[in-house]
Amino acid sequence: MALLVVGSLAFDSIKTPHGKAERILGGSATYFSLAASYFTEVRVVGVVGEDFTAEHEAVMKVRGVDTRGIQRAKGKTFFWSGEYSENLNEAKTNVTELNVLEDFQPEIPRGYSDSEFLFLANIDPVLQSQVRRAMSSARFVGGDTMNFWIGGKPRELADTLKQIDVMLINDGEARMLAKDHSLPRAANKILAKGPKALVIKHGEYGATVFFREGAFGIGHHPFRAPALPIEEVKDPTGAGDSFAGGFMGYIASQDGLNREVFKRAMFYGGVMGSFAVECFGTERLRNLSRDEIDARFQIFRELTHLE
Amino acid sequence: MALLVVGSLAFDSIKTPHGKAERILGGSATYFSLAASYFTEVRVVGVVGEDFTAEHEAVMKVRGVDTRGIQRAKGKTFFWSGEYSENLNEAKTNVTELNVLEDFQPEIPRGYSDSEFLFLANIDPVLQSQVRRAMSSARFVGGDTMNFWIGGKPRELADTLKQIDVMLINDGEARMLAKDHSLPRAANKILAKGPKALVIKHGEYGATVFFREGAFGIGHHPFRAPALPIEEVKDPTGAGDSFAGGFMGYIASQDGLNREVFKRAMFYGGVMGSFAVECFGTERLRNLSRDEIDARFQIFRELTHLE
């Protein structure tokens, strides 16, 4: 079923211990769309500037992503430049140029309004709430955020939290949002703010999903999915968005939502994240096959399962 | 089958966000013995001072641990004082008094020499090698170490590494020992130094075992076991030693060593670590039942397994 994502489209300049890349295609909506495109029909809403060419758009189009929701504005596309030291879990931001993202007003194309699944990638929570309300028919909604909004727009973010089914954030964001260092305790505090489920991403250690009591009728025991031990993480940029894409894409591809679907979605999230970091930018996510994805799913299973 | 551990017996003063305790029974050999005692016959070698009473020894004896190898020396027992902030993964050491541990010369009681399993807990690598050589008949040997020895006695530690089958250390120690931030790469470098398997403990995120190619005839794919998301970690002291006790104890209780035994040992390690942190000191490890342990093993399975 159709999955709509609203988020950023960007150019990134990235430096890691394994190399660097200048002004390559990035952005949360881009990584998300590519990762989700292996599972379901994906529609994207975002804004780009005049430097965003047909060639850039084609990266998504060849993966079957519906790009009618990409708005073109005067000026330059959102630009981010950052670098990673040996500790690949943390990026140091050098430059953030919002550019056209600064005045972004998401418009949902008429043809998108029947999307049953919605993902609010990391953008201003005011816009997240706006899109959520415009897409009132969506029956399963995921969301992301970051320290910038947690610190800067706490009330607006609280409003968003009330309107989503599952939140996907990382360890640091969960601790900051709940003001609690203990992740299980932080999870419960965040679940009390609205979402039925919370996925906390632990970087190289995997991810844990916590459920509100009775959520989706599937009990409240947490579930933990691994990440792949990878010797050479080339570029961690977009790993979290790719996780979200695999996670939401798999859920959207299934007939119903039960505990087993949720668990498998966690695995597929980890799988897509593991592909994303193997190459710079979106490179690896552009030309995967479902067979490669399912083979890696099996590796994740063998990594964690007893007989 | 009998499992011999050589390590420290100690008194600890501990402060955590959930309380504090003064001069309670601790030490790597103590936590290890108690955790392993639920699986197999355990024998302990270590040194204590005059302040170590029959009551302290009884904590191990009531669990069936053979304490004939506890040597008594003039002076005081090894003392450690430390505290944990909200980040319970890291202790801040306030006081370390080696006391009788300073001149410790491990002596293996005659009745211990048929021990088929041996664990060299965190003590001077010179002593670890000495014990390893004295126990040449041991057919499976595990070991631990810490930053103090990695930095201070690298050659001696290299000698120990050549003589053990499996090393159990944490993330920081693995990175320091291999001089590499990437854990999978660090693992391969450490395996090249001698051990057939390396267990890297990730604290609240679980643990991963890496194998040397062809080790134990069970392939070289890593395996990852979870830790339990616990809302209230009362006292993390001894979690790693308890992991090692569960891990080695389970292996010693099995007839042969195959991949499945190794995997289950990783789970039992996590299970015993999860119990250890629920109370201050060794409290929780003193009066468990095998039923409680196996029930938690099931929780670990449900936390990680797809259908």
SSE order and pairing:
2 copies of one chain form a homodimer.
Chain A: E1 3-6, E2 10-16, E3 19-26, H1 28-36, E4 42-48, H2 54-61, E5 66-72, E6 78-84, E7 91-97, E8 117-120, H3 125-134, E9 140-143, H4 147-152, H5 154-161, E10 166-170, H6 171-178, H7 183-191, E11 197-201, E12 207-211, E13 223-225, H8 239-253, H9 259-276, H10 283-286, H11 290-304
Parallel strand pairs in A: 1-4, 1-8, 2-6, 4-5, 8-9, 9-10, 10-11
Antiparallel strand pairs in A: 2-3, 6-7, 11-12, 12-13
Helix pairs in contact in A: 1-8, 3-5, 6-7, 8-9, 9-11
Observed structural traits:
homodimer, 307 residues, alpha/beta, 9-stranded mixed sheet, 4-stranded mixed sheet, 24% strand, globular
What does this structure look like?
Two copies of one chain form a homodimer. By secondary structure, chain A is α/β, with parallel strands linked by helices. Chain A is built from eleven helices and 13 strands. Chain A has helices at residues 28-36, 54-61, 125-134, 147-152, 154-161, 171-178, 183-191, 239-253, 259-276, 283-286, 290-304, and strands at residues 3-6, 10-16, 19-26, 42-48, 66-72, 78-84, 91-97, 117-120, 140-143, 166-170, 197-201, 207-211, 223-225. A nine-stranded mixed β-sheet of chain A has the order 5-4-1-8-9-10-11-12-13, sandwiched between helices. The longest helix of chain A has 18 residues, at 259-276. Chain A is globular. Chains A and B meet through helix 7, strand 13, helix 9 and helix 11 of A and helix 7, strand 13, helix 9 and helix 11 of B.
